[in-house]
Amino acid sequence: MDVVEYNDSLVNIVKECTDSTQELFKDFNLDDANIESITEALQNSITICQNSQVNVSKLWSYKKDSSLKDAVTELLTLEIDYLQKFVSTSRYRNIDNITEEDKAEYDWIISDLNETQNALNQQFTELQEEQEVFAAKYALKLE
Predict the structure, then answer these.
(1) Is the distance from CB of 81 to CB of 126 less than 8 angstroms?
(2) Number of H helices, E strands in the chain
(3) Which of 20, 51, 65, 134 is the residue whose CA sits 20 to 30 A from 37?
(4) The pLDDT value given to residue 30
(5) Nearest to 79 by CA among 2, 20, 32, 11
(6) Which residues are within 8 A (CB) of 6 and not within 5 positions of it... i.e. 6 or more apart?
(7) What is the CA angle 71-45-65, rounded to 5?
């Protein structure tokens, strides 16, 4: 596999996961959906991202350089973690009377979810930077 195919393979694998997540949050009406349909949609995205992670693990490192593959793996791990944490917020939807204990737990989950989102955004930036370094190292022209 040449450098272009290697890069494109990793890009396409990441795209499968991130597209499913973006579609979920763009097209799925979280405000009107019931808990079961939200959980099912999230689980579908988690499965797609886990499959992406498996596909990345099947790729060899390019010329024994795993830097780009490692950055992709970390991004997918964070994406899955984010989706799994988001699933845990579902049980608080449509609760009319939330107890103080549940409110505290929900607030903690949301805080953790926000931290994961920040880490995910940072990892995406780091992945882009790693791809640029990788491209320069192997004379790959990025689009």
Answers:
(1) no
(2) 4, 0
(3) 51
(4) 62
(5) 20
(6) 59, 62, 68
(7) 15
- State the residue for tokens 């498996």: 54
Give the SS3 label for residue 65.
Answer: strand
Give the pLDDT score at 26: 76
Mean pLDDT, all residues of the chain: 90
Q: pLDDT tens digits for 20-31?
A: 998 887 766 666
According to DSSP, the residues that pair with 62 across neighbouring strands are 65
Residue 108 Cα to chain centre, angstroms? 21
Residue carrying structure tokens 């989950």 = 109
First vs last Cα of the chain: how many Å apart? 19
Query: Residue 55 and residue 13: Cα distance in Å, rounded?
Result: 7
Q: Within a 10 A sphere around the Cβ of 114, how many other Cβ atoms? A: 12
Q: Tell me the residue type at 131.
A: Q
**What is the C-alpha separation between 119 and 135, in angstroms, rounded?**
24
Structure tokens at 136: 């320069």
* Rounded Cα–Cα distance for residues 28 and 142 (Å): 33
Residues of the chain with pLDDT under 70: 27-33, 94
> What pTM, to 2 d.p., does this model score?
0.90
The three-state secondary structure class of 139 is coil
